[in-house]
Amino acid sequence: MEKAIYIRVKRHKTTYFIQCDPTETTLDIKQKLQELIDQPCSNQRLTLVTSSEILDDSKTLAEQKVENDTIVALTLRKDDNEFEEVYIARVEDYTSFS
Amino acid sequence: MKKEDTVKLISSEGFEFVVDKTAAMVSHTIRNMLTSPGSFSETQHGEVTFPEISTLILEKICQYFYWHLQYASGKETEFHIEPEITLELMMAANYLHT
Lengths: 98, 98
Fold this sequence. Notes:
The complex is a heterodimer of chains A (98) and B (98).
Chain A: E1 5-11, E2 14-20, H1 26-37, E3 44-48, E4 71-76
Parallel strand pairs in A: 1-4
Antiparallel strand pairs in A: 1-2, 3-4
Chain B: E1 6-10, E2 16-20, H1 21-24, H2 28-35, H3 41-44, E3 47-49, H4 55-72, H5 86-96
Parallel strand pairs in B: 1-3
Antiparallel strand pairs in B: 1-2
């Protein structure tokens, strides 16, 4: 059974396409990501790129207006326990003319 | 969602797209790589590099994979293609047998 939607989770030069349902919570998404990035849910933060709004673990995707093909930024907890800044690499910065 | 069920597609600028194998296999070229016995060392590590495909185009192709799955399961939405990328996208789609 295919999931209804997918979201694009981005960090640095990587994009994760994650299949999900609008009724799933942010925590459900973090559990899926946990398998892929080897980082526990508590060390992940998901931020809506368009509004810079941090997604709430207990709320569903639908409640937070996360729809099909939405881009969400992933940030991870650093050694000092703070979260890193949102950083998504832009392709223009890596275009080579060789 | 398990790491083994995903594949990492890498663009010419080194950007990475992590997608479900079922989605990537919409491309016959990638399907052959993933299912041929013993060949293609890249696919054993779950990574395929496309030095000829730019980041913009590769991301569009990944979006197409998921659109294709959604469409196949009955959702009728259009797949939007920006006119300026049409030619490059067609050449990549031809190469990928998508």
